[in-house]
Design brief:
By secondary structure, the protein is mainly α. It has two helices and three strands; from the N terminus they run αβββα. The longest helix has 86 residues. It is elongated and about 135 Å long.
Length: 154
Amino acid sequence: FRNVPNEIPLVKLQALFNESLITLFSGFHPDHFWEPDEYRPEGSIENTTTENGNDEPQASNGDRTMSMSELQEELARFKSIISEKADDDARRDSQFQSVVSEQKQEISRLKKMVSSRAENDAKREKQFQNVVSEQQEEIARLKNMITAVSSDDE
């Protein structure tokens, strides 16, 4: 006699738990299913006999095969795309270089402005110190005159 409703399927639960841990740590996504035919390596070249009996290398691309002339056309198309992108990159690089040179000139102009202002401030500070020292000398001279006059009056 076996009491089936009360029996807990521990092996099954452990397997589900292990699978959930693997799923948790491997980054499973529910939409991550894939078709194997779409992910087969493209361009695997194999020799096949064409309709006229010639052996011509062809590339397998999923469900269809490409002849050598189609492969060369495709290669030429890719080369033109790459050259266009290289031209765009060169144009962007030249624009970037011009912006950088303009910024460099602006920075040097600002540095000169700041240094000239600092020099002007230093000159003004010297002039101010000279004026202050002259005024202090004048005050000391006047004090001496006042003390001399007051001592003469006594």
